[in-house]
Amino acid sequence: MVTKLQNMLKLKCNLEDENQELKDKVTNVIDELAITREEHKLAMTMSEKKMEDLQASHKQEIDELLETTTAQREKEVGLLQESLQSKMNEIGKLHKQLTELEREKQTEVARVRLEYDAKLLKLQKEITRAQQQSSKTANRGSDIFRQKLSNVKAEADQQISSLKRTISDLQRRLDAQTGGTYGPKRKF
């Protein structure tokens, strides 16, 4: 029985030792868990700080990129507007030159028409005068006057043809330059 008690006492001591060991291990695990939690908390804080820093850096990069892009776009828009204004001014000048050229050509055509009409009238008067003179002096050298009349008519026809060609040529050039935007052509 003493042995039994000794064994029980020994078992009790062993159990107490084992229990103490387990308590120590639990305390160590709790301490390690607390340390791990602190480390995890510190790591989370550092990660959050890094994330905030990265977000701030990213936002700053985006803002800088946006600012740079906006400045470049505004510069390009300004250049395009200047180019457009320059082209519009150039078109205005060309339009003004075209209008002036049309006016000059119309003036030239009118001048040539007036010359044509004046020469035609002069030739008609000369023909009429020659006819009157030829009828008055029909008995005296009617052949000479007929010849002269024929020469005057031929010269008149030649001048009329020349003037018609000149007018047609000027009209054609005017139509080519203006794109044929005027009314119907006058026929001579």
UniProtKB/TrEMBL annotation:
Keywords linked to the UniProt accession: Coiled coil
Descriptive protein name: Uncharacterized protein
Domain of life, source organism: Eukaryota
Taxonomic source organism: Strongylocentrotus purpuratus (Purple sea urchin)
Chain coiled-coil ranges: 8-39, 84-173
